[in-house]
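Why show two proteins at once? Because comparison is the fastest way to build intuition. When a single record is shown, students tend to memorize it. When two are placed side by side, the eye starts asking what differs. So, the first record is below.
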Amino acid sequence: MALICAPALMGVIAKTKAFFAGRKGPPFLQTYYDIAKLLRKGAVYSTTTSWVFKAGPVVCVGAAGAACFFIPFGTLGAPISFTGDVVLFMYLLGVMRFFTVIAALDTGSAFEGMGASREVFFSALAEPVFLLCILSLARSTQGFRLNELFSAAPPFHMAPALLAGASLFVILLAENARIPVDDPATHLELTMIHEVMVLDHSGPDFGFITYGSCLKLWLFALVFVRMLLPFHATAPGVDVLLTALGMGITGVCVGTVESVMARLRLLRVPQLLAGAAALAVLALLSGEGAIL
């Protein structure tokens, strides 16, 4: 489901932004068309790059695809589940970022190096917050596997879930280079973060990067939805439908934020992530109170 439906989440965001702008917007399946077109093209490589530049997009897609096996979708349990799998899940996302950064640095371009520096700095602030959100649910559910974290929970666990969900939504925007942290549609060099790192990729490589970005957005959106819906419906089909509806609503929320907010100055982004960290700490403390 993730491999097939992940690009559709981009379509939901694009249609929401077009609605707020009073435009028709691109087709709902435009991301699928773009990826298919890129995969049919050829790739151009600089003579200064090495195998690292070519391996970056492939490793990114592989890491994001592997991470999909750890997140349950409604009552459909995760294909791979073991105690501490959340650590491996976060490491897979870290591998994805690491190879994106070193592929950008492998070009020898100071422009891409600037974007890589910004990416690493903001990720160093966002990753601990994401871990705190997961730990808040782990403390509430007394489990440390993703299947347990997003399973049925008593009502008093909703307090940490709501706080962690608000924090996680900020991290979703930051990790996926969305407004107000980054603008995926900009080409102004002073504000670019993620897009500047992939400027030298072309053809199938850029298609892999686009597809990997869709998978990463799907993963964070799914974690966000399951964090706010820590229960299961009586019918498995209804639960899967509710999860899918929650994914669509998340896409609408992202598109709404991008339509009504401006991009923050780079110096303001750490303050935004600090606010998300404060919410995550409150979620952790409220989860401890629920247990006591």
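Second record. Ask yourself what differs from the first in the token line.
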Amino acid sequence: MLSVSQVSEILDKLNSVFFLHNNSEITFEVNPDDATPEYLRSLKQAGINRLSIGTQSFHNSELEYLGRTHSAETSIKSVLAAKYAGFDNVSIDIIYGLPESVSGDPNYNIEQALIADVQHISAYSLTMEPGTILANLAEKNKMLPPDEELSVTHFRLFMKLLVEAGYEHYEISNFAKQGYRSKHNSAYWQNKAYLGLGAGAHSFDQDRRFINTGIITEYIRGILNDTPSRETEVLSINDRYNDYIITTIRTSDGCNLKDIYNQFGEEFGSYFLKNIQPLIEKQLIISEDSHYFLTENGKLWTDSVSEKLIIDADHML
């Protein structure tokens, strides 16, 4: 939605306020409809060095179900246009687990991604969040809900074929060629601090979370008055432990017992060891040295695994 001159203005301002390393990852999200060769070439010249393209599917039936305006052909053309524009770091999104009646062959989605030779693929199972248009339509029986059994089958296929093709399955929903993990998203999963700028943006300093107001005029007024309009959440040690578990267990690096002891103390380390053991016995988790990882079956039950390891309000440490 931004013009190239607006993108340049933002990048110029960032460079004037912060020191950006030469290897900084500067990602820009684009819809296939907007990914014209001219626009992408101009983005590259402006300083964008990584593109995230919301292809979602290479099947028209799936795109129509999702309410997307672009076609499968446009999805393919947008990826090709990015490569022609000189981008050598391109990520695409693929959604799977749609109802069988509209679901296309997942092999074809994977084949197209491999033919396009993109560096990064984010594969998401279709979920209908309460209050969204898709969820409301499903509740009124105007739209078929996601197919959970099909979702599992497709996810296993993605894991098998993409890993065989040389992609690293470094996070539950993300696959990357060697050296092309998303630096931005990896910061979240590694529990690093991050700064969000603009209305509605989130920030995290490892002790607190900040959420800027989503009302633009209110946000600007707060900045001008040097009184930012935002909500602040101070995290307890339990909150920080839970965040660590929920984020790291999703990654191929897993949870590190040494980190748990160092960051949270012996009581938390003992709690983790006690609760991880049943998951190891169920072959949902494997361990290597002090690292604990999800097995292939465990990746199908990530949320359930996390629930067994985090501390709820009834078991405060």
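One difference worth noting in the second protein: The mean pLDDT is 91.
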